[in-house]
Amino acid sequence: MSHKRIKERTYLNKLISFIVGLVVGYLIYLFIFSMFTNGDEIPDFYSNLSIMFSLITMLAYIIISEFNYLKKLELTTNALHSNISIYKKREKDLLSKAEEIITKFLYHESDIQKSVASSREGSAVKSGVEGEILSISDLRLTVESYPDLKSDTHISTILSQLEESQNTILNSKLLYNEYVTYYNSTIVNVPAIIFLEMWKLESLEFYHDTDINE
Fold first, then answer.
1. What is the tens place of the pLDDT at every residue in 79-126?
2. What is the pLDDT of residue 4?
3. What interhelical angle do 44-105 and 153-186 show, nearest 10?
4. What whole-number distance in Å separates Cα of residue 157 and Cα of residue 162?
5. Domain encompassing residue 78
6. How many CB atoms lie within 10 A of CB 155?
7. CA-to-CA distance for 15 and 169, rounded, in angstroms?
8. What is the maximal distance between C-alpha atoms in the chain?
9. How far is it, in rounded angstroms, from Cα 130 to Cα 63?
10. HSE value, Cβ hemisphere, 13 Å, CA-based, for 191
11. What gap in Å lies between CA 135 and CA 141, rounded to an integer?
């Protein structure tokens, strides 16, 4: 799975864009004003006016561009957080599917069935939620204990998908926190910090696991 990397805007990039924009703007305004003058020479008044208009234009552009960039960055960061919930929901669905397969597969093995039921009850007591599905560690322990179950292709496929899902969730959490770090540091720098309240920019919280088994 590919992750969208942060498109950072450094002070050097901003400075280069500002200088280039200032020069281009000056030439454009100078050309416009030259259309209203007679002769080959442009009065200093129009030249100074071109500089002033170019400066105002670039300042307005920087402010608008920074606002749009930060809002887009905020939306992207929030979307990454939502994606984590989606990936975790998929992981739970896979666990539920694995539990269903195990129950059917070991239906006639009463001693194993009791072991699975006991594992379910232990998980429920542990988490404080009745009917909690098997954790990944419980699932692997059960599969490793019974060779016939371990050789089942459906279980092998689900275990492979769960491993991939865990890696995806981990990478998503790391990427989200990376975005949060960059966003929080960007909004306290110029020019964003000047318009912090006006733009309603607030620091985002890092992702913390509430369940040690996640």
1. 999 999 999 999 989 888 888 877 777 675 655 555 555 555 554 434
2. 64
3. 150
4. 9
5. 65-119+127-199
6. 20
7. 37
8. 104
9. 53
10. 16
11. 10
Average pLDDT of the chain?
81
Tokens read off for 198:
């006006």
> What one-letter code names the amino acid at 118?
S
Q: Cβ neighbours of residue 67 under 8 Å, at least 6 residues apart?
A: 195, 199
* Residue bearing tokens 């007679």: 38
Q: Classify residue 113: in a domain, yes or no.
A: yes
Domains identified in the chain, total number: 1
Alpha carbons within 13 A on the beta-carbon side of 40: 0
In a domain, 41, yes or no: no
Angstrom distance (rounded) from CA 112 to CA 145: 10
Average the pLDDT over 13-18 and give the result.
90
Residue 42's identity, in one-letter code, is I
Closest CA to 73 of 205, 191, 184, 208: 184
Q: Is residue 51 part of a domain?
A: no
Tell me the pTM.
0.73
Per residue in 29-78, pLDDT tens? Answer: 999 988 887 767 778 888 999 999 999 999 999 999 999 999 999 999 99
Helical (H) or strand (E) element with 210: none
Residue 26 in contact with residue 49, Cβ under 8 Å?
A: no
